[in-house]
């Protein structure tokens, strides 16, 4: 197991560097979008997290750079201030990342959970970095976006009522918000066989989707008006048969209302996703109507800031993964979450009735 985990760590780091290999130092260190971190901050944060969990917590060693602890603490330094910080850059950043990794390869593995936590943390940050690159129009040349699907998103499959075991089981790695596995029940419902495609989204937009007030929630309409959201450029430029991407929850909700449908609950989503009838799972994150909360019996692990501080009625749950999500992260039980106005996510929509 030790050799396997170390091998994965190296593969993930190579992938991380490959994703930014086309960028110059200015692109790495500038704020690409107000809601995102400079890419070099993300790289330093990935290394500092590894140093904290593998070298300090698992191996009991002092942090390699104690002076960087607050700088790379995501709660001490929110995104809006990171561009003004003296984060590591250039050769100093690469040297720090290499030194942390060298020590981490000597850390005890134990059951492997902390190593898996560090691996998946880096993979999640690379997706966040791809979001920033999307907003700046500097995606890697090799990044292709969602693949086409054989449907419009308006074809439905029926799911029978009944009990369902939801969440991750007790063995293997899982995030705290995926546990405990527990019983749920759904009434009969229908869900889209595929995510909504760009062509279908354009038909919605051309049919008054951004003008018909009755299709929007009060919050969604206020957001649309405040930011003058009148169309969806990504849908206009994308493959007509590929899932629409970079859709906010507000837009997804309005689209569903326009089609006398709704967004699925995350219970419905997970139940349906275990069936073979659904296509396109993993091409775009799929918004659900559910707020991000803990399952019955939730226990924070290994720190409450991963999940618990986000619980409540602000964040909506997304499911399924995306074309920017590494398969190691995108299990059917994985729960993503974000604010309903966010468009930088590789998120689309699958509707339900």
UniProtKB/TrEMBL annotation:
Residues 10-107 form the DinB-like domain. The keyword Oxidoreductase applies. Keywords: Iron, Oxidoreductase. Residues 155-277, 281-353 form the Sulfatase-modifying factor enzyme-like domain. It holds the Pfam family DinB_2. Pathway: Amino-acid biosynthesis; ergothioneine biosynthesis. It comes from the Bacteria. The keyword 4Fe-4S does not apply. This is SUMF1/EgtB/PvdO family nonheme iron enzyme. It comes from Solirubrobacter ginsenosidimutans.
